[in-house]
Amino acid sequence: MFIETKQLTKKFGGLVAVNGVDFSIEKGKINAIIGPNGAGKSTFFNLVSGSYQPSSGQVFYKGKNITKLPPNKIAELGVARTFQTTNLFEQATVLDNVLVGHRLRTNSSLLDAVLRTKRFKREERRCMEKAMEVLDFVGLTHVSDKLAGNITQEEKKRVAFALALATDPEVVFLDEPAAGINPGETEGLAELMEKMVGRGITVCLIEHKMKMIMKLADKIMVLNYGEKIAEGTSDEIRNNQAVIDAYLGG
Ligand code: ADP
Ligand code: MG
User: Fold this and answer.
1) For the structural domain made of 1-78+170-250, what CATH number should be given?
2) Quick one: signal sequence residues (predicted)?
3) 192 vs 46, 106, 114, CA distance in Å?
4) Which three-class secondary structure state does DSSP give residue 154?
């Protein structure tokens, strides 16, 4: 088992946002979570990545119980994520956005930086190489010197991918990566996700764009009012009556 949740539950006061969810994320595949607004999809991501502590239940990563680990420790294990809205430093270049995001995770101390030690310079070079590499991977080399405030919505989505990829993750959680972009751009992002899987990275995404999901996802979980109402392949989900009633019907 790669990533597994057992009876994962999150309550906010009287509201049960995620309710006893058992789900297994398949390694090397594109896993998707769908469901109406407020179904608990983002909360589920927050629980798996450690941003929220569950009210009950567990999360296992490669057999290890990571339920109580803080987000930075989970990230170090190879779990990366993007957020529903990407906050970039709009007055900084695309490259600097990726560099800053990456440098926060290096081993240099502030003293190393001030003294510009060999170690600092070595790490700085490594950070630059990594940033250039991930920007190339996501197809943004040509805008790396532009201010992040001046790039398109679709390019911002790609920067979010680059930030996640800079950590050399084993799995990337993408929260509505294709929200607010046009069908052609959505197709491009879908190709990028397939490219990630081609590199051995596991993808788990939340998405409302059904056409994209049905084509792209190997495994889909459907949440409704915090509960898993179905899981399976695109064909199984498309023909599931509970899913049609709760989500696809309208
Ligand atoms: P989705 O991503 O499926 O649209 P969310 O996971 O964001 O849904 O939210 C699920 C439910 O939990 C919603 O009713 C939302 O209002 C509630 N919720 C999410 N985060 C919090 C929070 N930090 N505090 C209180 N309620 C929250
Ligand atoms: Mg959400």
Assistant:
1) 3.40.50.300
2) none
3) 23, 26, 38
4) helix
Nearest alpha carbon, ligand 1 atom 27: 12
Is 10 close to ligand 1, i.e. is its CB under 6 Å away? no
How far from chain centre, in Å, is Cα 63?
Answer: 21
Q: Is 43 in the pocket of ligand 1 (CB under 6 A)?
A: yes
Sheet of 3-12, strand order: 15-25, 3-12, 56-61, 64-65
Residuewise pLDDT in 10s, the chain (250 residues): 999 999 999 999 999 999 999 999 999 999 999 999 999 999 999 999 999 999 999 999 999 999 999 999 999 999 999 987 878 999 999 999 999 877 655 666 667 777 778 877 888 888 899 999 999 999 999 999 999 999 999 999 999 999 999 999 999 999 999 999 999 999 999 999 999 999 999 999 999 999 899 999 999 999 999 999 999 999 999 999 999 988 887 5
109 CA to centre of ligand 1 in angstroms: 37
Distances (CA, A) of 13 to 40, 52, 126, 241: 15, 14, 45, 31
Which ranges in the chain are annotated with CATH 3.40.50.300?
A: 1-78+170-250
Give the Å distances, CA to CA, from 63 to 60, 76, 79, 117, 180.
6, 16, 14, 39, 37
Q: Which amino acid is at 29?
A: K
Q: Whose CA is nearest to atom 20 of ligand 1?
A: 43
Ligand nearest to the CA of 223: 1
Please state the pTM of the whole predicted model: 0.92
> Which ligand is nearest the CA of 179, by number?
2
